[in-house]
């Protein structure tokens, strides 16, 4: 009798389990150091990051994309990055793209399409629709980190 009851509980728990709609979970090994860079800086704000996201490299058409999907009342998110772009991008440009997608997926930020920029022509936010170059990221790294997390 107890065994049947226990089996019933197990079935009901698994029957209500959410279906993870992501094509992958976790972080692709090639992206770990870049994701960790942003996680570390997010922690400075005392907020940390949401658990359970995914970063993966695909053959997609966009160089980076933040995906959302809700399933059984829970929202899942994951980022895909285009492999051919990633393979040829400079380190700082990779960081700026991962930060940008982190902004969409982790911080729920949209694009910031203003005309404001630095005197050297660099944009005033990683959340511009186009990826911030390595030259600009290197020149204004601390600013971009603080701007992304709303610490300005
Ligand atoms: Zn974007």
Folded structure, characterized:
It is a single chain. The protein has one domain (15-148): Collagenase (Catalytic Domain). Strands 1-2-4-3 form a four-stranded mixed β-sheet. The protein is built from six helices and four strands. α2 crosses α4. β1, α2 (32-44) and β2 (54-58) form a beta-alpha-beta unit. Helix content is 41%, strand content 16%. It has 152 residues and is α/β, with parallel strands linked by helices. Zinc ion is lined by residues 100, 104, 111, 129. Zinc ion binds at residues 100, 104, 111, 129.
In a few lines, what is going on in this structure?
This protein is α/β, with parallel strands linked by helices. The protein has helices at residues 2-16, 32-44, 83-88, 91-105, 134-139, 141-148, and strands spanning 26-27, 54-58, 64-71, 74-82.
List keywords for this structure.
binds zinc ion; alpha/beta; globular; 152 residues; Collagenase (Catalytic Domain); single chain; 4 strands; 6 helices
């Amino acid at each position: 009798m107890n065994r049947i009851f226990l089996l019933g509980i197990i079935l009901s728990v698994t029957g209500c389990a959410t279906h993870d709609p992501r094509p992958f979970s976790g972080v692709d090994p090639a992206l770990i150091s870049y994701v960790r860079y942003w996680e570390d800086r997010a922690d400075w704000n005392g907020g940390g990051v949401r658990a359970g996201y995914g970063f993966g490299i695909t053959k997609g058409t966009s160089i980076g994309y933040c995906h959302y999907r809700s399933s059984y009342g829970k929202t899942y998110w994951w980022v895909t990055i285009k492999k051919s772009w990633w393979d040829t991008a400079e380190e700082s440009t990779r960081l700026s793209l991962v930060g940008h997608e982190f902004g969409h997926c982790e911080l729920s930020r949209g694009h910031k399409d203003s005309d404001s920029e630095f005197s050297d022509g660099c944009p005033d936010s990683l959340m511009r629709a186009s990826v911030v170059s390595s030259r600009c990221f290197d020149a204004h790294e601390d600013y971009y980190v603080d701007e992304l997390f709303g610490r300005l």
